[in-house]
Amino acid sequence: MNKRSFFELSFSELEKFFTDLGFSKYRANQVFSWVYKNNIYDFMQMSNLSLNLRDLLSSSFDLSFPKIQSTVESADNSFKFLLHLGENDFIETVFINHKNRNTICISSQIGCPVGCVMCSTGKIGFKRNLKVSEIVLQVMAVENFVRSKMGKIDNIVFMGMGEPMLNFDNVIKAIKILTDKNGKSFSPRRIVISTSGFVDGIKKLKEVGLPIKLAVSLHATTDEIRSKLIPINKTFGISELIKASEEYALASKRRVTYEYVLMESINDSDQDIIRLKDLLKGLHAHVNLVKYNQSLSNVRIKTNIRRIKLFEKMLNNFGIKTTIRFSKGEDINGACGQLALLSGLNSGACSSI
Predict the structure, then answer these.
(1) Is 87 a catalytic residue?
(2) N or C end of the chain: which has fewer CB within 10 A?
(3) DSSP 3-state assignment of 300?
């Protein structure tokens, strides 16, 4: 009999498991604490449970982690993990070490169906959504690996492989497990969900009622250009996307981050600065300007550093909070847009947009 992964269970589901069998609810708190607070991944080591109860849990649930197939360390102290989920299923997860915090960039899908021009993940195609346990276990496995030397994980960003809004239910359940006060107790304010622009997902996220940070991959100031870069823009245009994002900002009381990768001669003109100002002026918005990271895209792209600095200066002068975000892990293909399970993939020929 295949056992259910323990990491699929919410706290309330674990309570129900116990009460359905005639046990007290507080057993759920004991077990959740052992796993998520005390980092014990063997039911037989949970000494405040009876041997019979430990046997029952061992026969019912699986506490195993995905295999860490490989790790690569960047010169900037970031790590990229290749996780083997079973059979021929792999994902990449990135650990980013900052001076005063640790961030994990996690995946929500194997591959991605969205097909953004500047992102490598879409080049490998889409295989499937990740299970709740496969999302939770990225955090657990990576933290377990780095804890002794670098400490615990402080921030979680859904900016790895896949579009989180296309695996909405599993992503939200995983977040609720990781933020549960009986377990890891992550603050939802330290969790970021990034979307390429799925407005229906943003609206659903608003209804969830958690103060999760929303990041939107904008990358263009006209529908014509954005539709070439990010195909979902043909369904949800810029004005509809920004309207939904502002509604989320007001409901969550969290400023929305608009990611903008500067691509020379594509989206970095003086007119783009003015249009970006006009789109975001007066909104609860923060702009992250990002240097393009080399990917498997068949479009030749580069970032003009002088232009990115001009964008930062002008947008701040217009009253729009703007920063330049320098991605970590680029030397190990672990930066934004680079996760692609690179072995066996060909980069293809270059073309122009």
Answers:
(1) no
(2) N
(3) coil
CATH code, 67-332: 3.20.20.70
Predicted pLDDT at 148? 81
Residue 14 assigned ligand-binding role = no
State yes or no: pLDDT of 351 exceeds 80. no
Give the CA dihedral 221, 222, 225, 229, nearest 10 degrees: 60
Domain boundary assignment for the chain: 4-62, 67-332
pTM: 0.92
Phi, then psi, of 15 in degrees rounded to 5: -60, -45
Q: Does domain 4-62 have CATH number 1.10.150.530?
A: yes
Measure the CA–CA gap between 69 and 65, rounded to whole angstroms: 12
Question: Does the annotation place 119 within a ligand binding site?
Answer: yes
pLDDT score of 325 more than 90: no
Whether residue 324 is predicted with pLDDT greater than 50 in this model: the reply is yes
Residues 6+ apart with CB under 8 A from 132: 7, 8, 170, 173, 174, 177
CB 95 within 8 A of CB 104: yes
The single-letter code of the amino acid at 69 is: Q
pLDDT for the residue numbered 300: 67
